[in-house]
Design a protein that fits this description.
single chain, mainly alpha
Length: 132
């Protein structure tokens, strides 16, 4: 996967989070169902990033990216475990803090991709750009 592919997947993740945030703010009919759909999409995209890490050769350049991905997975898992869609309270301060941690983790993984782009070949050593 090229860093451009990583950027695309992370951009889709950001859009998914923004869509979920909009549903939480506006709370249209069946907003909880929308949250479930967004969570499934986020899981799919995290899986795409996980495939990249699994297929990438061991490299010191990937350390920060791996760390950022692990942290993002953890913050998403924590939010979803503590706030299932059926009992989600978007107004609760604890939920807001958990959602903010997910946003910060997403920013960290974007920065990790920028670091990968500093390498001459955009860190495409695997020869593969299969992502999904």
């Amino acid at each position: 996967m090229l860093t451009a592919d990583l950027r695309q997947v992370i951009g889709e993740m950001r859009e998914t989070v923004q869509t979920a945030n909009a549903a939480l703010l506006q709370r249209p009919d069946r907003w909880r169902n929308e949250i479930v759909v967004m969570r499934l999409q986020l899981a799919k995209l995290l899986g795409c990033l996980g495939k990249f890490v699994a297929a990438a050769p061991a490299s010191p350049e990937l350390v920060n990216f791996r760390r950022a991905l692990s942290h993002l997975r953890g913050t998403v898992a924590e939010l979803q475990a503590n706030w299932p869609a059926v009992s989600l309270d978007p107004d609760a301060p604890e939920f807001k803090r958990a959602a903010q941690r997910v946003g910060l983790s997403l920013e960290a993984i974007q920065k990790a991709v920028v670091e990968l782009e500093r390498f001459p070949d955009g860190f495409d050593r695997s020869g593969s750009s299969e992502t999904r």
